[in-house]
Specification:
Keywords: Glycosyltransferase, Transferase
Number of strands: 0
InterPro entries: Beta-lactam/transpept-like, PCN-bd_Tpept
Radius of gyration: 14 Å
Strand content: under 5%
EC number: 2.4.1.129
Enzyme class: transferase
GO molecular function: glycosyltransferase activity; penicillin binding
Structural class: mainly alpha
Length: 50
């Protein structure tokens, strides 16, 4: 799966955004930068084929 597609899918589900419920102290989650995802996907692919 292309890295950008994975990032777009997570963002479509709201990852990295506040829930909008008005909770005290709520902040947006952290979405790692694309370069992190690229290395993570490479390691995941390697472990899945080992």
């Amino acid at each position: 799966m292309p890295v950008q597609h994975l990032i777009d899918t997570y963002k479509a589900f709201g990852f990295g955004d506040p829930t909008g419920l008005g909770l005290t102290g709520e902040s947006a989650g952290l979405m790692p930068q694309r370069r992190y995802w690229a290395s993570w996907i490479a390691r995941l692919s390697l472990s899945a084929t080992a």
